[in-house]
Write a structure and sequence with these properties.
alpha+beta, about 30% strand, elongated
Length: about 90
Amino acid sequence: MHIHVIPNRGSRPTILLRESYREGKKVKKRTLANLSSLSCKQVETIRRTLNGEELVPIDTLFTVTSSHHHGHVQAVRMAMKKLGFEKLIA
């Protein structure tokens, strides 16, 4: 199985899920599904799966070793900005 992209003039390309097979000496293609309504990200995920790539959740690929607190600083900064302290200090 493979994904076949067929360009269209002036509109989005047609994206088809196809399989190749032989009939005698001729190689033919059979369309299994029309994937045109899917997003590019979804089509790329299907393509990667068909290539045998194992997909894992992104949070299992990384570990956080340390992080700095910044929420309280951002909250104070946003409050100062909304209240106009920047103009007052300048």
